[in-house]
Amino acid sequence: MNFRTAIQIEKTTFNISHLDGILAMGSCFTEHIGQRLFYHQFKINQNPLGISYNPISISKHLLLLAGQACDSESTTEYDGYFFHYDFHSSFFDTSSKALIHQLREKIKAAQSSLARTNVLILSFGTSIVYRHKKNTNIVNNCHKQNADQFEKIQLSPNQMIQALVHSIQKIKELNPELQFIFTLSPVRHLRFGMRENSVSKAALNWAINELCNEHDYCHYFPSYEIFMDDLRDYRFYDSDLLHPSVEGVEYVWNLFSETYFEDHTKNLNQNIHTIQQGLSHRPFHEKSLAHQKFKENLQRKINHLKTSYPEFCWNI
């Protein structure tokens, strides 16, 4: 008797290798996949402009990468620090000028990497957003400001599609060969309520589906469906019962690998994993003969890989 619903994922028309440049932007689920890619020595640039959950804010970030100027008039001071409503709370400074300089440097660095990027992963978390009542702009982060400054709205699929098509086309003008992978974060935003979360995810899914149907460079990876329909067990969730556990992320990573990696890449990943495990080994007697031989063997494995991939970086 079968007690699970296995997700059937179609093989894509392109593959990802260690030679490809990857840019990952969006929700914290992007970081889970990004960490696995980084661990396996892929050239990954992960959320260079900070975590973002909704498609409107992510679209704004894409437009910044495409050359749109950062809005220097939108910084706000609170309790001695300045922040920007278009960016995550990890971006702040003691003056507006310093904050804008910090943001422009981050944008400049991300723009530089865009030319070397082959794959852009976008992960959406919610289509419920907050709009600032004073300037009517949708914010990326409320920065713990008074709730009466904002109004909560549910984005329509058409609103999201319009914003994403505009920003993606601008990016494609700079990098015509770029492939986009869309994912929908399985993390439930229950502070809005169960039903509201379901509507939010459904609207996102609709928007992504339309984009993928209309553009052959847009692809969907079903991380949401893997958790909702396959991993229907709380052992695959963290202690908050909302975020994926290590086992859950590993399961998704394995399916991601099967979808986008050829056998050569998967074999290389296994060799890299063996080296990473060796590097994390902590000996009982560090100066013992056995450990010195272990280190020499590990160094030989590293040197062998670096002959073909000199960009790989390890410290032993």
Describe this structure in words.
The structure is a single chain. With 316 residues, this protein is an alpha/beta fold. It has two domains: 21-261, SGNH hydrolase (Rossmann fold, 3-Layer(aba) Sandwich), CATH 3.40.50.1110; 262-316, no CATH class. The chain is built from nine helices and ten strands. A five-stranded parallel sheet has the order 2-1-5-9-10, sandwiched between helices. Helix 2 packs parallel to helix 4. The longest helix has 21 residues, at 194-214. It is globular and about 70 Å long. It starts with 20 loop residues before the first strand and ends in an 8-residue tail after the last helix. The model has no long low-confidence stretch (mean pLDDT 91).
